[in-house]
Specification:
Number of strands of chain B: 19
Helix content of chain A: 25-40%
Pfam families (chain A): Aconitase_C
Keywords (chain A): Amino-acid biosynthesis, Branched-chain amino acid biosynthesis, Leucine biosynthesis, Lyase
Shape of chain A: globular
Strand content of chain A: 15-25%
Pathway (chain A): Amino-acid biosynthesis; L-leucine biosynthesis; L-leucine from 3-methyl-2-oxobutanoate: step 2/4
Oligomer: heterodimer
Largest sheet of chain A: 7 strands, mixed
Number of helices of chain B: 17
Radius of gyration of chain B: 22 Å
Number of helices of chain A: 8
EC number (chain A): 4.2.1.33
Distance between the termini of chain A: 33 Å
Strand content of chain B: 15-25%
Distance between the termini of chain B: 60 Å
Helix content of chain B: 25-40%
Bound molecules: iron/sulfur cluster
Protein name (chain A): 3-isopropylmalate dehydratase small subunit
Amino acid sequence: MEKFTTHTGRAVPLRRSNVDTDQIIPAHWLKKVTRSGFEDGLFEAWRKDEEFVLNRPERQGASVLVAGPEFGTGSSREHAVWALQNYGFQTVISSRFADIFRGNSLKNGLLTVVLPQETVERLWELTEADPTAEITVDLEAREVRAEGVTAGFELDDNVRWRLLNGLDDISITLQNEADIATFEATRPAYKPRTQPAA
Amino acid sequence: MGRTLAEKVWDDHVVRRAEGEPDLLYIDLHLLHEVTSPQAFDGLRLAGRPVRRTDLTIATEDHNTPTLDIDKPIADPVSKVQLETLRKNAAEFGVRIHSLGDVEQGVVHVVGPQLGLTQPGMTVVCGDSHTSTHGAFGALAFGIGTSQVEHVLATQTLPLAPFRTMAITVEGELPEGVTAKDLILAIITKIGTGGGQGYVLEYRGSAIRSLSMEARMTICNMSIEAGARAGMIAPDDTTFAYLKGRPHAPQGEDWDAAVEYWRTLAGDEDAVFDAEVFIDANELTPFVTWGTNPGQGAPLGANVPHPEDFTDPQERIAAENALKYMGLEAGTPLREVAVDAVFVGSCTNGRIEDLRAAAAILDGRQVADGVRMLVVPGSVRVALQAVEEGLDKVFTAAGAEWRHAGCSMCLGMNPDQLAPGERCASTSNRNFEGRQGKGGRTHLVSPQVAAATALLGRLASPADLTDPVAVEA
Ligand code: SF4
């Protein structure tokens, strides 16, 4: 996983609530067996419309998605995170994220930032008025900055530490392999197994 | 202080707890399917890691599988690659798999319970949000992303942040013709698609106690549609009766030991929930969705709402967008909404009880002209049972199509899809834009409402059929 310390970029305002992961990346894209190449599937249905914000010339190269509430609801597909990253987004700001999506994003180094809806509205207004306006998401200071906006955000210390260092969860867990083995030794006999233990 | 059911199951699975770190939780059962696993196996391969516990892992093919001509090669080359990738990975890593054509194949959330693999007090995960289904057994079961799939394959554990608990207490009796599906749709409309966020929901109360396991699974299945981490129901005699004798259920002394443990799982009298919701079962009526998220629902007897009815500006915009997408006029009685297709199936309502309910209504009647009805059993076992009971004949005689098991039109990854603009009454769990096919419009309903709707060609409940004129129509 790439480290995330601080990122500054132009924004895309997505004024919609309840953007589910089926909208972020439709099911037919899920047949791919890789983690890359999902950028063209991102918001595929909406991108058919020339006026859709992502299609606007002034939004090309933007890397901060400022989304409406309940972003990422529905299916657990991590492909939604990969699609956003493949497209070039480094961070997503919303007043509320669905849990699984948020977990997936943080595991992949896509920083999801929760800000109050009023702040999201101000960021929308700012970038709509001036598409070249930049937004900085500073993980070290746990702060979002833009012209006229300075807003702190919360993020679990442990998650922040993993992101700042680009650490892979599996290796961290495997450091505690002995604890896992001890736990397994006490697992009751009546708990089912899918097949006889090897 | 007393603990809730969810807290007990959590506590029983903590492998490691350290200040400032998430708890490391042991996972008892890991279910896999072809869509969310290929990148996880790739990760293992790259790091040179094995699957830690192949005996706690099982795979089935469901999302991409065709429901017709299953003995022929899969027509869609991309679907074919994905299924073959799962088969290859399962063989390479030693994971048990039930492929297309196997008698245990089916939708992953139907297969786990019917094999008796899903049991009370377990932790169950799958790279699929509807893993919440398994909570019906008093298991802590939740959907995970592909990175977490890889994590569980490698370590059989997950680092997890704590959740909050919400009690959803449903007292009373569901009126005639009102089902578990109507109840959960009403709950989601009440608390909203984000209402359960961060919570494990525990459904309880007399109305829940009286439900069958199938109905309980329907309810827990849709917990995720309220944004919840998981949904649970305390195990009781109904749970034990369902499990007894299943292939992977404990036997003999093990069974007695298991039941003794399972009985300790119910929440303590003095357990405190972080939030509570009360529902009066007696007041419920058949419920349908009119919009493009599962929280946009209303009683079947209501009208399509006006966006102005919503005080919250975001909800108002969402309603406007939804009506536009759904091609609905505010104020139209929902009962006047005509459909082109009806889908009975999915991990929400594709079990034998659901098929029986739909068949009972279709028996001796005819699907309305111009309406296409698809009946897709949740698993091969469900299909076999239905055939044994003659339900397949009832469906085909009524003019419905009887298909092979799989996810099918629940998400349209296989050829079963709606055409743009087509409207469908579906027993599945998601009415998102394009979920059942690009431009398709979905109304979530119970199997009973689905069957009545197929007969009348418009959203309807079985009660509407008692009107002889309506049946003629
Ligand atoms: S039936 Fe539908 S909801 Fe259930 S696992 Fe399949 S696609 Fe997902």
